[in-house]
Specification:
heterodimer; A: 6-stranded mixed sheet; globular; B: about 290 residues; 2 domains; 6-stranded mixed sheet; ATP-binding (chain A); ATP binding (chain A); ATPase-coupled transmembrane transporter activity (chain A); ATP hydrolysis activity (chain A); ABC_transpr_CbiO/EcfA_su (chain A)
Chain lengths: ~260, ~290
């Protein structure tokens, strides 16, 4: 598969001059990837760079073959979609359908096509029965799904989730996880930043560990999440399933795939 | 009639203004002094509304349709003045940004704000703010701007600004939802400290693996109704619990699949107990 996102020798600093991302080299294809790291690891900064909202201080980011320095955020929006952590920062229309149609209309798709895309996206997240409701009459979890639909309606190749499980109940964490699997199956490149290690274990094949702006490791989720040394260095927890495995002295994940 | 309950709720039904739907429906329970009680349920179950009702903000601030009673030390919250209420019961909101006043520019002043509003003498304010900041390990940060703190520190500051009022009951609405594992552990350590000081605690939390280690009992809400109010292992062993799709601690799920129960006949909810039972089962199967 083509490398849809390619990051080469990326360094980034805000105005202070201190580098918050240091020499990152990584690429993404169709495999769903979790970027983990504790609060302050520069996860959100990294995602903003992928979305083109911030430009590299040094190095390059290529999205679909185009250098983010040589294009606009509007152009990139056709390829990269970002689901915000807090739905209330993303929602601003007074009707569910208008909220979801806003994205495609904004990148100059025609009205009929935008409507179709919106309905399809709402079906995928299970909100097609609520097209005429006010977003703030929905529950917090439904608003999260609405935000996901708004991004999917633009049909981006890359879908980025910023902390998708925060403040969600267990049922909806599972639902969001299943959406990740579905999107991956449909050929999307899914990237999520999170510190929910059990969510990572359940739904992502690949994991990157970020710590204080450094990319510590990049590899298969099953292998990385068992490396207690790496997780500890990055201030992360081992998923409960591995804690149980090592305490009981057997490989629970093989015995019992959750 | 010496009622000893710290909190008593009698047939509480409540709907927000302009809403036909009951956010809470016929809720009744009692909490004894010093108990630590968890509230679980899916998003929209009424957990936050119940927190608002416990602290009197429903119906004093959020009007709407209200029937039944919330009693604090036997007194109806509607009859208690705000000045008295804030020293009896404190509420820590889910999002610290909603809690921090922003009216003060240092951590120290932010924590002192509540006491200043109550007209507490200056010397006492100094003592109390210092004690709380030291207890929560924020003393070093006292001259910093609240909005320059990390997420974990900001959440601790929100808790400090409530604790400084020395409430007898502390209500926390998903206090760790924005935090990573380090911040989550810190918040639970504070909760454990408060519990050992005899403060009554009510806590909304989705991180069951942490919650069950601290609570005496759990209130389980679903669509505004109280499904159960019981010990954690009994709640997560309810035969119909799967239908509510509320989830369970990960190792409880594992023990359910393997049908492993503890000596009391319930699925284990605590880590150490689950490990013990799983080890035993493994030894059995090796033989």
């Amino acid at each position: 598969m083509d490398l849809i996102v390619k990051v080469e020798n990326l360094w980034f600093s805000y105005k202070s001059g201190k580098f918050v991302l240091k020499n990152i080299n990584v690429s993404f294809d169709g495999v769903s990837t979790a970027i983990v790291g504790q609060n302050g690891a520069a996860k959100t900064t990294f995602v903003k760079i992928l979305k083109g909202l911030l430009k590299p201080t040094m190095g390059d980011v290529w999205i679909n073959g185009v250098n983010t320095k040589e294009t606009t955020v509007a152009q990139l929006a056709k390829v990269v979609g970002l689901v915000f952590q807090d739905p209330s920062e993303q929602i601003f229309k007074s009707k569910v359908i208008d909220e979801v149609m806003f994205g495609p209309l904004n990148i100059f798709r025609d009205k009929q096509y935008s409507y179709q895309m919106a309905i399809e996206a709402l079906k995928l997240v299970g909100l097609d029965g609520k097209v005429n409701e006010h977003p703030y009459d929905l529950t917090l979890s439904e608003r999260k799904l609405l935000c996901i639909a708004s991004v999917l309606a633009m049909d981006p190749k890359v879908v980025i989730f910023d902390e998708p499980t925060i403040a969600q109940d267990r049922y909806h964490i599972k639902k969001i996880g299943e959406l990740v699997l579905e999107l991956e199956k449909n050929g999307k490149t899914v990237i999520a930043i999170t510190h929910d290690m059990d969510f990572v274990f359940d739904y992502f094949k690949r994991t990157l560990v970020l710590h204080r702006g450094n990319l510590l490791v990049d590899g298969k989720t099953d292998e990385i999440l068992q490396r207690e040394d790496v997780l500890k260095a990055a201030g992360l927890d081992t998923p409960y399933i591995f804690k149980i495995s090592s305490s009981v002295g057997t490989v629970i994940s093989k015995l019992f795939p959750i | 009639m010496g009622s000893t309950e710290k909190i008593k709720i009698e047939s509480l039904t409540y709907a927000y203004p302009f809403s036909d739907k009951n956010a809470l429906e016929n809720i009744s329970f009692s909490i004894m002094p010093g108990e630590c009680v968890g509230i679980i349920g899916r998003n929209g179950a009424g957990k936050s509304t119940l927190c608002l009702a416990l602290t009197g903000l429903v119906p004093k601030f959020f009007k709407g349709r209200y029937s039944g009673k919330v009693l604090l030390d036997g007194e109806d919250v509607r009859q208690i003045s705000y000045e008295k209420l804030v020293t009896k019961i404190g509420l820590v909101l889910q999002n610290p940004f909603s809690q921090i006043t922003g009216a003060r520019i240092t951590v120290y002043e932010e924590v002192a704000f509540g006491l200043e509003n109550l007209g507490i003498p200056r010397d006492e304010i100094k003592q109390r703010v210092e004690a709380v900041l030291k207890a929560l390990d924020l003393w070093e940060k006292r001259d910093e701007n609240p909005f320059e703190l990390s997420g974990g520190q900001l959440q601790k500051l929100a808790i400090a600004s409530v604790l400084v009022l020395q409430p007898e009951v502390l209500v926390l609405d998903e206090p760790t939802s924005q935090l990573d594992s380090g911040g989550t552990k810190e918040v639970f350590e504070i909760i454990s400290q408060m519990k050992s000081q005899g403060i009554t605690i009510v806590l909304v939390e989705h991180k069951y693996e942490m919650l069950v280690e601290y609570v005496d009992k759990i209130i389980f809400l679903q669509e505004g109704k109280m499904i159960a109010f019981d010990e954690a292992e009994k709640i997560f062993s309810l035969p119909e619990i799967d239908e509510y799709m509320v989830g369970e601690p990960i190792y409880t799920k594992l023990c359910k699949k393997l049908n492993l129960k503890n000596s009391r006949g319930y699925y284990p909810v605590k880590f150490s107990e689950a490990v013990g039972i799983l080890r035993e089962a493994r030894c059995g199967s090796d033989r």
